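Render this sequence as a predicted structure.
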Amino acid sequence: MTGSFKDLKVYQLAFDAAREIFKVSKKFPKEETYSLTDQVRRSSRSVCANLGEGYRKRLYPKHFTSKMTDADGEATETSIWLDFALDCEYIDISTHHSLHEKYQEIGRMLNSMALHPEKFTPKQ
């Protein structure tokens, strides 16, 4: 696998999901600015950042795997923050379901990458 991490489907899905979270979180109440709003934005963006970092270190399978599991952890954290947003009625069930499904798919893809780092090693 060659090219940029930005070419990975999982990166594109994660980036789009983070952008969607940014848009919906603009409507969260002001009192959530430094808690839920900040947390869900940071964790969703961290999925992308960990993907990028890990992809650049794919010569080292253990480091790559570690970064993919970090990205998966951030995806899970994002899903949890979305649960809070739903419970507080900051997002509707449809938005929650759509984003939750995206993060489930992202998680499956990241897990597969972590289990098979050899598929991402650059060819010499």
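Summary. Helices lie at 9-25, 33-56, 61-87, 93-115. DSSP finds four helices and no strands in the chain.
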